[in-house]
Automatic annotation (TrEMBL):
It comes from Flavobacterium agrisoli. It comes from the Bacteria. Coiled coil: none annotated. One of its GO terms (biological process) is carbohydrate metabolic process. This is Glycoside hydrolase family 15 protein. GO terms for molecular function: hydrolase activity, hydrolyzing O-glycosyl compounds. Residues 8-131 form the Trehalase-like N-terminal domain. The lineage of its organism: Bacteria, Pseudomonadati, Bacteroidota, Flavobacteriia, Flavobacteriales. Residues 219-582 form the GH15-like domain. Keywords: Hydrolase.
């Protein structure tokens, strides 16, 4: 059974996925949303990859170099052994800027004996849309696309270039390297230079990890998730990606395959909020500047998502020549959902703006712009909160009055009021408070279903939805309010499947979902913790952690029966929720644990 047993490496410009056998099977250069140079992930036959081939006597193990994003794959037959340290360079330059070239370094380190391996180097540029031609030059291999769009890739190595091109056996008698570069190098790399890039990158990540807040429990899981979220941030603009991949299906053989290499306002704002809690203020600043740059006009409505370079049109198309992950077609690039209206984004963005102004009010560089955005958000919400929308799950057909969207409209006004108080804008507070109360009363009157004994997915509906669990987290309702407790219990009865949650069970545009949306299970565990069922929450959390891949990484979805990872990978949504849940559960006191045990 194939699983998403990949590690991610990156440098906040692009990323690559490396299999548990050391093969690069997904990478786009020069940036996250560029066309792929390796896409075996989406087509086993023609996608292209960079494989390391050893005979069957070798055992392969893999781990991250502690507190870094450097991935170490070890090959050993008991006598001959070596390891590959895979990374994309990232470090500070003397001028204060980051060095983040569009490059992958594979640093081969000899451990013992004389290891032997072959390299199968098969780049397929431009999503493998045409033929890629490889030519051995004096000091590099150049790969050129033979398609409508020109592209090129350069390989430099301490190993014999002809041996690489023809997959001949290489004996590792000393350390060596392979460097893949999108741009031709002016200075030819040396092993000493590669080692320097390794040490600089290692030092950067150790320094970044050292800033992470320490908790009583789960620090290892929190830090790995934090590094993963950092790898999904884009240095140039401050955007945060939903995932590093496109078209990994929610269910094998079905068509729920989307491109996630974009910045969703919802996902990114949630990421920034949790990353700030961990102590990484700079990432939050960069993201807020991204938002400021996106909204130059005071009356401009936010889109739900943007390109990482602030693109506002994300035209969706299919790549019909690719067979898809395990045959799951179509493969899509672009995302037509950018034009949808989802009213929840305003509340989620206002929540992170309030957090930043509350924590760093004396250290916010763009406070006036954020105040303008706050007023603009209030204007949009006040004029549109009563309208239906597509909702958090991006239903592509009818609009509805989704409860989560309404709650986040209330959140937008509530946080705007708090921001106004911080800034001393008393007139705005007085003007906005009645609106917040009106929205809240509307939700209480229309979203609560007396027959179901829960807040339901949308007004007048009998269907349950895991997103409603966030109503407590955003401060809409108290954790021990009988209606919230009843909602948690109802969702557990209706949406839980062996501890994993459906997003919802009602039919959507593509039929009944058959996999669990990972973040929903984290939300459920958090809700159990909030209502005092701490022992059950911790048990389910540890069980959910066991479903991660061998490196502690999560995708978007988990198959109910097999527990295999599905959907785009690694998923920012999943890892931010993991961090939030781990922080909450690490704060359980002995008294709470005793009470939780009694309740269970």
């Amino acid at each position: 059974m194939k699983n998403l047993n990949y590690g991610i490496i990156g440098n906040c410009r692009s990323a690559a996925l490396i299999s548990d056998t050391g093969n690069i099977e997904w990478c786009c250069l020069p940036e996250f949303d560029s066309s792929s140079i390796f896409a075996k992930l989406l087509d086993e036959k023609i996608g292209g990859s960079f494989d390391i081939i050893c005979d069957e006597s070798y055992t392969i193990t893999q781990k991250y170099l502690e507190n870094t994003s450097i991935l170490v794959t070890t090959f050993s037959n008991g006598v001959d052994a070596f390891e590959i340290n895979d990374f994309m360079p990232r470090y500070f330059k003397e001028n204060g800027h980051y060095m983040i070239p569009p490059e992958i370094i594979r640093y081969f380190k000899k451990i013992s004996g004389i290891p032997k391996f072959k390299i199968k180097y098969d780049p397929q540029l431009e999503y493998a849309s045409g033929t890629t031609l490889d030519f051995v030059k004096d000091d590099h291999i150049i790969s050129l696309s033979d398609s409508d769009k020109f592209d090129s890739l350069f390989l430099y190595s301490s190993f014999n270039l002809d041996a690489i091109k023809h997959s001949e056996t290489i004996e590792l008698t000393s350390d060596g390297y392979v460097l893949l570069a999108y741009n031709e190098k002016i200075l030819i790399p040396t092993l000493a230079k590669i080692n320097l890039e390794f040490e600089r990158t290692k030092s950067y990540w150790l320094g970044w990890a050292d800033k992470n807040t320490e908790y009583k429990k789960f620090n290892k899981e929190i830090l790995r998730s934090a590094i993963t979220l950092k790898l999904l941030s884009y240095q140039k603009t401050g955007a945060v990606l939903a995932a590093a991949t496109t078209s990994l299906p929610e269910t094998i053989g079905e068509v729920r395959n989307w491109d996630y290499r974009f910045c969703w306002i919802r996902d990114a704002s949630m990421v920034v909020k949790v990353i700030t809690e961990l102590g990484h203020k700079k990432m939050a600043r960069n993201y807020l500047q991204f938002i400021v740059d996106l909204v130059p006009d005071k009356d401009e409505k936010l889109q739900i998502m943007y390109g990482i370079n602030k693109e506002k049109r994300l035209t969706e198309e299919t790549l019909d020549h690719l067979s898809g992950y395990m045959g799951s077609k179509p493969v899509r690039i672009g995302n037509a959902a950018y034009s949808q209206r989802q009213n929840d984004i305003y509340g989620i963005l206002m929540d992170v703006i309030h957090q930043q102004l509350d924590k760093f009010s004396n250290d916010i560089e763009n406070g006036e712009e954020l105040w303008n955005i706050t007023k603009g958000i209030v204007w949009v919400v006040s004029n549109h909160w009563q309208e239906p929308d597509k909702g958090i799950w991006e239903f592509r057909t009818e609009d509805r009055h989704f409860t989560f969207s309404k709650i986040l409209c209330w959140t937008a006004i509530d946080r705007a009021i708090k921001v106004a108080k911080i800034l001393g804008k008393k007139n705005n507070v007085a003007k906005w408070e009645p609106l917040a109360q009106t929205i809240k009363e509307d939700i209480i009157n229309n979203a609560w279903n007396e027959n179901v004994q829960a807040f339901t997915q949308s007004y007048g509906s009998n269907d349950l939805d895991a997103s409603v669990l966030l109503m407590e987290s955003y401060g809409f309702i108290e954790a021990l309010d009988p209606k919230f407790v009843a909602t948690v219990k109802a969702i557990e009865r209706d949406l839980s499947n062996d501890g994993l949650l459906y997003r919802y069970k009602n039919q959507d545009d593509f039929g009944l979902p058959s996999s669990s949306f990972t973040i929903c299970t984290f939300w459920f565990i958090n809700s159990l913790y909030k209502i005092g069922e701490t022992k059950k929450a911790e048990k389910l959390f540890k069980k959910l952690l066991s479903y991660s891949n061998h490196l502690g990484l999560f995708s978007e979805d988990i198959d109910f029966e097999t527990k295999r990872l599905l959907g785009n990978f690694p998923q920012a949504y999943s890892h931010l929720a993991l961090i939030e849940t781990a922080i909450n559960l690490s704060n359980i006191t002995e008294e709470e644990a005793v009470i939780g045990a009694m309740k269970n």
